[in-house]
Design goal:
Elements: E1 2-6, H1 16-26, E2 30-36, H2 47-51, E3 58-59, E4 62-67, H3 76-97, E5 105-110, H4 117-127, E6 131-135, H5 141-145, H6 152-167, E7 171-174, H7 179-184, E8 193-195, E9 222-229, H8 236-245, E10 252-259, H9 263-272, E11 279-283, H10 290-294, E12 299-303, H11 316-324, E13 328-331, H12 334-343, E14 346-349, H13 354-366, H14 369-386, H15 389-409
Parallel strand pairs: 1-2, 1-5, 2-4, 5-6, 6-7, 7-8, 9-10, 9-12, 10-11, 12-13, 13-14
Antiparallel strand pairs: 3-4
Helix pairs in contact: 3-4, 8-13, 11-14
């Protein structure tokens, strides 16, 4: 099949869509990705891309068509401009760059913002092609959840836009089971809503990984590691408060691998709270390096703010953590916490509960290695049963073939 993927984010930015595009191409599909200039998470266009843009036109057999956009910057206003710039650039310049190209379907990676679907809808009508939208972030709910928008009138207007988007998509994929009911509020055709969760990249099958030299190896230390985006939703105030509760535990070390809009604040707080001996920040590294950092970890940390919308989300790192074979500590509510508990993969406390997080970290640290290993193995077994990549992409392919058949019979 000839598939056009529309995603505001793509390699060298680190998102699951990179792995999906590679897997589909490896299965013999002809994949083209329409995306923007890479600028996540730093908020500025990657220097290497500015110098050598031609290097970023192909990724593992996937053709990459890039359109200019305003970088995210570090302010809410810059972020809004970034969103709108991609809408116009991908719709207008993207349609010109893809002129004469025919596709069997368009797949939209619905990370925030959901407005990424607008260029896809524009292309749908030009190319007479069905659309599948993978909803990875709920709008308008997420806007109010993180405090970006508080006006009811604006949220209602976004709701109208979301209805328009869902109406013009032929398939709407929900990343968690909890998402289905919320999507249904804006999508009247419930039969086109399907559950389609995320998976983990194939990174953790090599048992001979050498520990990352960027983190000092220490004996008799319990290491809890957080990896990924350092943003508002990840609730770093709670993580640092928990680290303060355990300040006197010299045998517990927190390792933070990643970057994001709150990284500067976290660094400042570590110094301000005198947590330099308790918390280590390494900065951002390529996805391929993650196993070497995980090699330091005795447990992996996932956190989200206490919020009804976040409680409906399964953070993508949960699948990655499960597949690693390491135990998990979650400071999250809802479906993500249920997965950890159901899998027997670790402990979960309520979101935004610093004292509770400190307690489960201490509880995990007190376990012997054999008990922690059994948790990690249980998590990996659960991952294989529920989130294994081949099983999920087989299902996605079946959806695609049905869409293609419906298109040809129309």
């Amino acid at each position: 099949m000839k598939i056009l993927i529309v995603s505001q984010y793509f390699w060298p930015e680190n998102f699951r869509i990179n792995d999906l595009a590679t897997e589909l191409a490896g299965r013999g599909h002809e994949i083209t990705v329409l995306t923007g200039w890479p600028n996540y998470p730093e908020g500025k266009i990657y220097e290497d891309f500015n110098k050598y843009p031609q290097k970023y036109a192909n990724f593992n057999g996937v053709t990459v068509v890039r359109v200019p956009l305003a970088p995210r910057g570090q302010s809410a206003l810059r972020l809004m401009i970034n969103y709108f710039s991609f809408i116009f650039s991908a719709s207008l310049l993207g349609s010109l760059k893809l002129a004469g190209k025919k596709y069997d379907l368009i797949f939209v990676c619905g990370l925030s913002p959901i407005t990424v679907a607008i260029p896809a809808i524009f292309l749908k009508f030009i190319k007479k092609t069905p659309i599948a939208l993978w909803v990875l972030d709920l709008w308008p709910e997420s806007l109010s959840a993180v405090g970006v928008v508080k006006s009811k009138k604006i949220l209602d207007a976004v709701g109208v836009l979301v209805r328009f988007i869902y109406k013009n998509c032929d398939l709407v994929l929900a990343q968690s089971k909890s998402f289905i009911s919320s999507i249904g509020k804006y999508c009247s055709e419930s039969e086109k809503i399907k559950y389609f969760p995320s998976w983990s990249e194939d990174l953790f099958n090599n048992e001979s990984v050498v520990s990352a030299p960027e983190v000092e190896a220490k004996k008799d230390i319990f290491n809890i590691l957080f990896s990924g985006n350092i943003g508002d939703a990840q609730d770093f105030p709670t993580i640092l408060n928990a680290a303060e509760y355990l300040r006197e535990r010299s045998d517990i070390r927190w390792i933070i691998v990643g970057d994001g809009r709150m990284a500067g604040w976290v660094r400042e707080q570590i110094v301000k709270r005198n947590l330099q001996n308790n918390v280590v920040m390494t900065g951002r590294f390529p996805l391929e390096r993650m196993p070497s950092f995980f090699a330091h970890a005795d447990a992996l940390l996932v956190s989200l703010k206490a919020n009804d919308i976040f409680a409906m989300t399964i953070p993508g790192k949960v699948q990655t953590y499960l597949s690693s074979g390491l135990p998990i500590i979650g400071a999250i509510d809802g479906e993500g916490a249920e997965v950890i508990r159901e899998a027997g993969a670790g402990y979960a406390c309520k979101a935004s509960d610093a004292e509770g997080l400190a307690a489960v970290v201490a509880k995990m640290a007190a376990l012997n290695v054999e008990k922690r290993d059994s948790m990690g193995k249980a998590g990996k077994a659960y991952y294989v049963a529920q989130f294994e990549k081949k099983f999920l992409i087989d299902k996605l392919e079946s959806y695609f073939h049905s869409m293609s058949l419906n298109k040809n019979s129309a």
